[in-house]
Write a structure and sequence with these properties.
A: 358 residues; alpha/beta; B: 271 residues; Rossmann fold; 10 helices; globular; ABC_transp_ATP-bind (chain B); transport (chain B); ABC-type glutathione transport system ATPase component (chain B); AAA+_ATPase (chain B)
């Protein structure tokens, strides 16, 4: 935290007095998801809508969790903070240090949320309380951590300033409706930072925003990662957004991870046909090719997952094996994981597909 | 028979009553669209872009008669569209909305949704569909095939369909009366990326096959790049720039267009 993000010393003392678990905060480490499986009841019985998902959210890096509807990306993310539906059953591990958050219990999860992992939701106008001033909402978290009213207000102003709200000191008394959409999302981010969490989970943080505002919020997230060494899990369906802020990518399809690796590497040379198709269908401002060769069909429904590889009905290179045998997620190259039987041929696939386009 | 001149909007102004300044105060009107002139030729796709509140959807609503303009003229193939009860206009102009699920009646099958238009406009209905259920089914299946859907979709309700399928049903319904102008208001914004590409490809092929005029409203410049012949940029109710798509993307003139293009988040694969 730089001088723009000061923490009064008394605060720190008070916080550690009241919350002994914060002593562990200095012991850094990734947030590790291991074999996360979430069963949800559906119309035709229970299904594992998230199935054996593993990845790490590394420190000071932004991990992008990408997928389309039914991919299980949001459910996966919400499981990290204990916010899955009551009817859901989660198994596997979400490890914060040595602690498995899946078995942590409600009281502990309430501590975890905000203090260890905080959440930025898609729509700030529904996530913020319309009857409280922005300053009071940020301050509420700080007051809960032992700051006096005046200190909380000062620190709230600091936080709002930190996320780029102009005249922050003058606007702590403003209500959410007095803010524009972009300013509300900045306030939401300030709120997420108020508990000084190690991890921020951002669920489609720019989807509801205008184009020009979207770019600025993405810049802000990148700046916070660099200045505050913030570790972030960014959930989005938008590959364009991901390509700007994500360091690592986890691509999900029908509740499973189909590809994982460094973001640039994954986007430049996908090792799974689904990722490849996603990259091709991105409507780019520069080239007019996104609609030349669209992928057929709709994203698979995890309640009715095709046998074998869930992507096989839409896959241009599916063979008999893909219809019967579930491809495991395996390390194809150092740091590059793919759940495709033919991952080694991926490069050749994209070349031939590119020729087809011409 | 009217001449095919396409859509012609001249000096369109739309004002809404604004909020009251006090309990008994007068409403100060808000001008949502100010003196906008815009043409869409037959066989042309014009994209109307802008951020929220720029007035782009208000223009669409004025064209289909959902809001009454306070000034200006809207003509299609030489016929004024300002007479809101005009059946001719309703038949010839179709609109596709952002959220396909809320645009379709959840209690009606795809067949019922599509054929409802034929009940309202018998003059545009294929022969016999109003009396003969088998002919109706055949006409619906034909339309569904044109939007890439299987015949069994005809009997399904929106809840049994995916978002992309619902949007295809919306498009089939829009095409049922053989319109000459198709207005797409954020028609692909709510769809998954892989499905979005399919629906865009479908809209482009439908427009070509039927020589439609298409007004494509979106905030997504990447989508605009894929479909538009011409682009009109709106800002705060005013049209700030309008140009051939190629030209606008390569050489934007207005500062706001430049700002929009600079801010457009594109796929960045540079290492």
């Amino acid at each position: 935290m730089s001088d723009r993000h000061p923490v009064p010393t008394r605060t720190t003392a008070t916080m550690s007095d009241r919350a002994p678990e914060r002593a562990q905060r200095s012991s850094a480490g990734p947030l590790r998801v291991r074999g996360l499986t979430i069963a949800l009841p559906g119309q035709r019985g229970t299904a594992d809508v998230v199935d054996d998902v593993s990845f790490d959210v590394l420190e000071g890096r932004t991990t992008g969790l990408i997928g389309e509807s039914g991919s299980g990306k949001s459910l996966t993310a919400m499981a990290l903070v204990g916010l899955i539906p009551d009817t859901g059953v989660a198994s596997g591990q979400v490890l914060l240090g040595d602690e498995n958050l899946l078995t942590a219990g409600r009281a502990r999860m309430r501590q975890v949320r905000g203090a260890e992992i905080s959440v930025v939701f898609q729509d700030p106008s529904t996530a913020l309380n319309p009857t409280m001033t922005i300053g009071d909402q940020v301050g509420e978290i700080l007051r809960g951590r032992g700051l006096s009213r005046r200190q909380a207000r000062e620190r709230a102003a600091d936080l709002l300033d930190h996320v780029g709200i102009p005249d922050a000191a003058g606007r702590v008394g403003a209500y959410p409706h007095e803010f524009s959409g972009g300013m509300r999302q900045r306030a939401m981010i300030a709120l997420a930072l108020a508990g000084r969490p190690r991890f921020v989970l951002a669920d489609e943080p720019t989807t509801a925003l205008d184009v020009t505002v979207q770019a600025r919020i993405l810049d802000l997230l990148a700046r916070l990662r660099d200045e505050d060494n913030l570790s972030m899990l960014l959930v989005s369906h938008d590959l364009r957004v991901m390509s700007h802020v994500a360091d690592d990518l986890v691509v999900m399809y029908a509740g499973r991870v189909c590809e994982r690796g460094g973001a640039k590497a994954v986007l430049n040379r996908p090792l799974h046909p689904y990722t490849d198709a996603l990259v091709r269908s991105v409507p780019s401002v520069r080239v007019r090719s996104a609609i030349a060769d669209p992928l057929p069909g709709s994203p698979a429904n995890p309640f009715d997952r095709p046998t074998g590889c869930p992507f096989n009905p839409r896959c241009p290179r599916a063979e008999d094996r893909c219809r019967t045998e579930v491809p495991p997620l395996r390390e194809v190259e150092p740091g590059r994981f793919s759940a495709c039987h033919f991952a080694e041929l991926a490069e050749r696939t994209s070349d031939t597909a590119a020729e087809d386009l011409l | 028979m009217t001449a095919r001149t396409g859509l012609r909007i001249t000096d369109l102004t739309v004002t809404y009553p604004g909020p009251r300044t006090s309990g008994f105060g007068r409403r100060s009107p808000i001008t949502a669209v100010r003196a906008v002139s815009l043409d869409v030729a037959p066989d042309e796709t014009v994209a109307l872009v802008g951020e929220s509140g720029s007035g782009k959807s208000t223009i669409a609503r004025a064209i289909v008669g959902l809001v009454a303009p306070s000034g200006g003229a809207i003509e299609f193939d030489g016929t004024s569209l300002l007479n809101q009860r005009d059946r001719w206009a309703r038949r010839n102009i179709a609109m596709i909305f952002q959220d396909p699920r809320s645009a379709l009646n959840p209690r009606m099958s795809a067949e019922a949704s599509i054929s409802e238009a034929w009940q309202a406009h018998p003059e545009a209905a294929p022969e016999g569909v109003r009396r003969d259920p088998r002919r109706r089914r055949a006409a619906v299946v034909d339309l569904l095939a044109q939007v890439g859907l299987d015949p069994d979709v005809a009997g399904k309700r929106p809840t049994a369909l995916s978002g992309g399928q619902c949007q295809r049903v919306s498009i089939a319904r829009a095409l049922a009366l053989r319109p000459r102008l198709l207005i797409c208001d954020e028609a692909v914004s709510a769809l998954d990326v892989s499905v979005q590409a399919q629906v865009l490809a479908l809209l482009v092929s439908v427009r070509e096959a039927r020589s439609l005029s298409m007004l494509f409203i979106t905030h997504d410049l990447g989508v605009v790049r894929q479909v538009a012949d011409r682009v009109a940029v709106m800002r705060r109710g005013e049209l700030v720039e309008s140009a051939d798509a190629q030209t606008l993307f390569a050489d934007p003139r207005h500062d706001y267009t430049k700002e929009l293009l600079a801010a457009a988040v594109d796929l960045d694969v540079s290492s």
